[in-house]
Amino acid sequence: HLQESESENKLDGETASDSESKSEFGGSAPVPTSDDTPEVLNRALSNLSSRWKNWWVRGILTLAMITFFFIIIYLGPMVLMMIVMCVQIKCFHEIITIGYNVYHSYDLPWFRTLSWYFLLCVNYFFYGETVTDYFFTLVQREEPLRILSKYHRFISFALYLTGFCMFVLSLVKKHYRLQFYMFGWTHVTLLIVVTQSHLIIHNLFEGMIWFIVPISCVICNDIMAYMFGFFFGRTPLIKLSPKKTWEGFIGGFFATVLFGLLLSYVMSGYRCFTCPVEFNNDTNSFTVDCEPSELFQLQEYKIPVVLQSMLGWKTVRMYPFQIHSIALSTFASLIGPFGGFFASGFKRAFKIKDFANTIPGHGGIMDRFDCQYLMATFVNVYIASFIRGPNPSKLIQQFLTLRPDQQLHIFNTLKAHLVDKGMLGGLEDA
């Protein structure tokens, strides 16, 4: 029995310090979630073994979620943005609830109130920055928005400072350490959930293809890794997730890269997916229409000599974005799963099976988005590093808001620069 208990502790990654933490946080950890499978599915699958029952439950709910994903894509970028915000709030709620269940046993004041207040402050800051950055003309046209935009960072800091003072006033003698644990818990949750959900929105505004392809690659990798692991899995991959196997990991990688290439090829031909979201002053509405950039125009590429004899082709026509999709799908397959491993370690630390029981067979919303947040950060960094350049329309918008003397100064500077390069003289001669 002693050996069994020691092996269980090793499996859970629990040490003496973990035991001390549990006593500090007031007793036992949250219990695992109960079976939340709908009764209809339970009756229909009652004759199957637990392994195959779980396979069918996950499969049916996965198809339902994919269908819902297609519906919200059809509804457009603004609806997608609202869905991202709802998912963010739900993920925040699931993580904070775990802390609250422990913290509540001491009946200490304001933890949940302050947590949601900080969520409001951080969302106000990020959404304000996003609106000012992407819809500058709309902000400048409306007087209240212009004032809020001008002093946005000061207002955001003042709101956060208010919450900070409220936290200090809520400190209770003999429980200082616990309260600071929870203060840190809230801020780490904000960093993981809120910050990265806004990166998803930034990716969306660059063009829906930068939102759909990465998310779809993570979903594909999750499904294909599960399928390969279910049917062929024999070799354990990582102790944090005992059910994950090398066969599933490798099979999911190749399937995801192929899927990313095919999906990118299909989506690159539609402007509604490739064009950035912009605000149209004439129609007072958000539009997704533009002349496709070079990324989304078919190019002819020469196939390496080694592969020419195998494929029988010398050249291939493809979109440049497909090459970028290989980087996205590779990250989704090789690095993205570490977001899931991180979440598994977190759940094992608190001895819970899932973050919540929102989706039968899948757990909570956070269980489905643990890899998506890591993927969103990579895509945002990738766009900033390799794709995005200066935006002329945004520069002109900002130029027109300057004072006349500032505009004249910039005009003269630009004119002198063009004359020095010989471009202005050539234009005048023409």
Task: Break the fold down into its secondary structure elements and pairings.
Layout: H1 2-12, H2 16-24, H3 39-44, H4 50-75, H5 77-103, H6 111-134, H7 136-141, H8 143-150, H9 152-170, H10 176-205, H11 208-232, E1 236-238, E2 241-245, H12 246-267, H13 271-274, E3 278-280, E4 285-287, E5 299-302, H14 305-311, E6 315-318, H15 320-334, H16 337-349, H17 365-387, H18 392-400, H19 404-421, H20 423-429
Antiparallel strand pairs: 1-2, 3-4, 5-6
Helix pairs in contact: 5-6, 5-10, 6-9, 6-10, 10-11, 10-17, 11-12, 11-15, 11-17, 12-15, 16-17
Give me the side-by-side strand order of the main sheet.
1-2
Kindly name the structural category: mainly alpha
What is the number of strand segments? Answer: 6
Distance between the termini: 92 Å
The share of residues in extended strands comes to 5-15%
Question: What is the averaged pLDDT score?
Answer: 81
Main beta-sheet strand count, sense and barrel state: 2 strands, antiparallel
Uncertain runs:
1-34, 426-430
Helical residues, percent? over 70%
**Strand and helix order:** HHHHHHHHHHHEEHHEEEHEHHHHHH
Helical region count?
A: 20
Shape: flat
Cα gyration radius (Å): 26 Å
